[in-house]
Amino acid sequence: MDISSTGLRVLRQIAESGSFTAAATRLGYTQSAVSRQAASLERSAGTALFERRPDGVRLTPAGLTLLRHARTILDCLTAAERDLTGTVPRTELVRLGLFLSAGAAILPHSLTRLAATDPQITVTTTEGTTPSLIRALRAGSIDLAVLTSRPPHRPLDGESPRLHVETVADTELVVAVPSTGEFAGRTAAPVDELVDVPWIAAPASNAEPLLGVWPGLPGRPHIVHCARDWLTKLQLVAGGFGVTTVPSRLSPVLPPGVSLLHVEGAPPEIRRVLVARLPGRPTPAITAVTRAIASTT
Asked: What is the pTM of this model?
């Protein structure tokens, strides 16, 4: 096969982004350039590598096979560049991905512990939803991911080989409400009482559920604000502009003016915090970062 490193980088970015358009944006290419590279890869491989679906682009089994080799080849090219330029890494790098609320609840304590126990390890982080982080893991753009799942806790994706997944904590979903107003001084409310309140939610897509609205709400939610950023959501709650769901483990970092409400009359919503990586023997650095995350949950 005659495949360029550019083609392999395009393959990896399509796998991570889930679309040709998003891959082009991240790589700084035009969409037509990405499409040409994808077509060239398929001609060289002699088989289909990409499956076009309503919710985006996924790699075929052949595409996933090539992706596994692409990760190794691109890592070797990076190492060769370091050797040629005489750049010697002073620390061990772990690229960590986290779901949207894990940064505030988990990351600072984990990094503090890691600095004390393994100062030779450098961690870089990126934030995303669980589906996007799984794609990044598969693409080799991150080494480790802190993810979340809801019952019945099915496998995170259907690709093979399966990701190596460890459970580090279970946390209850609760509702963040203004400390003043109709819920002032309360610690619980019936789910029926939440139907008509204004909700603050994250934008939804086909692949990702609506975040911020109680999943078992017996009625259509009245969404008044959409925001992905947790600080924005919680400041809107503090200002009295709506309510939103949060994991109970966020309670130590809530801004003033926000209280937490347990939902009654509905099954408890438990969210599981997971650490995932590609299968195989992890590096000592990845093991150390996993241990630091587990110790703070």
From this structure: 0.70
